[in-house]
Design goal:
The chain contains 8 helices and 7 strands, in the order ααβαβαββαβαααββ. The protein is of the alpha/beta class. It has a 7-stranded mixed sheet with strand order 3-2-1-4-5-7-6, sandwiched between helices. The protein is globular.
Length: 237
């Protein structure tokens, strides 16, 4: 693995130019172990905090369940956190996780108590047509897997789909953040893909450009840093 001291973080690297092993051909066992390791990363590095804080501010008070869709849900850890957050707040929710990877739903089911009532869908979120309208879309550590034009398409889809708002929780591209992955012996896939992810991640100017390309009204958008290592984009309607 290269040293972050030798890397130029000034420009985002395209995922096609710098692949992550997780996006390739891995076994189900390695995928599941990676998802569980990432759950530990999120827990130790406060990765759930930005999304839950944003939900505190935007979830409407209603007797009807709030439909929250997690795009790129992976092993489902974010939705498990949201389910417990909703229970603490006394908020009725309907939770749906969507991921292109066919391993994701299987891993999520194995790790999620049935009583949480989360639905797992395998497929392209932009082709998702639920019976109940989507109130909120969240995404965590997924955007850096996408090319710029795919992110623009995702932003346009979220704009056209949600009733209340959307929130993208992803990484900030910086040398300091990348170094964090040298501190702990994560699963071998996470140890490789973590530093790669930071090179494919974002700075505020990247999001400003992508939001403009997607014609999202930026007066209703926040782009905020969350320590350690997160850069999150929130939109309310």
């Amino acid at each position: 693995m290269w040293s972050s001291r030798e890397i130029d973080f000034s420009q985002r690297v395209s995922p096609s130019d710098l692949p992550e092993l997780m996006d390739g051909d891995v076994s189900y066992e390695d995928f599941r172990a990676c998802m569980r390791s990432l759950e530990t990363v999120n827990r130790w590095l406060l990765g759930y905090r930005p999304t839950l804080t944003w939900l505190d501010q935007v979830v409407p008070t209603s007797s009807d369940p709030v439909h929250i869709v997690d795009v790129g849900c992976g092993g489902g850890d974010m939705l498990r956190q949201i389910a417990r957050w909703a229970e603490r707040k006394g908020i009725a929710v309907r939770l749906t996780g969507i991921d292109l990877n066919p391993y994701a739903a299987r891993a999520a089911v194995e790790s999620t108590p049935k009583e949480l009532g989360i639905t797992w869908v395998t497929g392209d979120a932009m082709l998702y047509r639920p019976e109940k309208p989507v109130d909120i879309v969240v995404s965590s550590l997924m955007a850096h897997h996408l090319e710029d034009e795919e992110i623009v398409s995702l932003l346009r889809w979220m704009e056209a789909t949600v009733q209340v708002g959307w929130f993208v929780n992803d990484l900030e591209r910086s040398k300091r953040s990348s170094r964090m992955f040298g501190w702990v012996r994560w699963h071998w896939l996470v140890r490789h893909d973590g530093p790669v992810s930071f090179r494919r991640a974002f700075r505020k100017e990247d999001w400003v450009r992508l939001l403009a390309a997607a014609e999202v009204p930026q007066e209703a958008v926040t782009v905020e840093k969350w320590r350690p290592g997160r850069l999150c984009v929130g939109r309310w309607k």
